[in-house]
From TrEMBL:
InterPro entries: ABM_dom (IPR007138), Dimeric_a/b-barrel (IPR011008). Residues 13-101 form the ABM domain. One of its GO terms (molecular function) is monooxygenase activity. SUPFAM superfamilies: Dimeric alpha+beta barrel. Keywords: Monooxygenase, Oxidoreductase. It comes from the Bacteria. This is Antibiotic biosynthesis monooxygenase family protein. The keyword Oxidoreductase applies.
Amino acid sequence: MGTRNNGRQADRLSVVFTVQVIEGGEQGFLDVYDQLRKSVARTPGHIVERLGAPVDDSRQWVITSEWQTAEHFFAWQQSEEHRALVAPLRQWVDSTQSLRFRVVKETTGVTS
């Protein structure tokens, strides 16, 4: 197991976005998300995006992303393209929550 803690890692921003999808709205949510992820993949400073599906009947989905810096993320989030892409998402969700944090330590597993 290794731990990395250097200046470049500390500049990274991680975003956790939880989405409570309305009952029966999974496919609509996934269709909107598919467009969103294509946009974010082209965005400067974007490192990775992951979509997590619930393993129970909670309808709670999780979108996580990593960015080179907070400035990259906020530039994308405040863009007209982002606003246009997320607007249709509202019809498929009951609630959302966004957490943003700076990565200060990262621990990786042992590789063989």
